[in-house]
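Hi U.,

Before I forget, here's the chain from the pilot set. I'm dumping it here mostly so it's searchable later in email.
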Amino acid sequence: MLPTDSGPLLLIPMRVAGRLVGVQTITTDGEKKFLFGQQCSGAEYLIDNKGRDFFCEGYATGLSVRAALSALKMRYRIHVCFSAHNLEKLAGACDGGLVIADNDASGAGLRAAQQAGRQFFMPPTVGYDFNDMHKALGVFRISQMIRRFMQAE
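Structure:
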């Protein structure tokens, strides 16, 4: 957290091939911004680096995916992609992996997951992402949803 006059900012480093190319800032109100002029295309934030690849859009979603996979005692590498377009690009370029798609009213999350050509899990409720499910249902229930989905693959 970076203290500022308008409140603390969470800073999420964005990397391409391990090289820092930008930062996403998140306010306590949840407002997300990127630094002016930074590279976003192909940038990601990795959570751990020990197992199967999982791709998601947002940082909070990535933390919820980590909580679910940790509850299942799974090894994982979570790619926080920062946008549906970037998720499509990064997941599509990776061999294998699972996409955790947002269920946007616009359908952007679904389209990105389909275009990536990977298996994907998407919350059944329109307007929800995996973090919303985590907050609504708790870690045990979301971990069991992921477990059942992966068994059905």
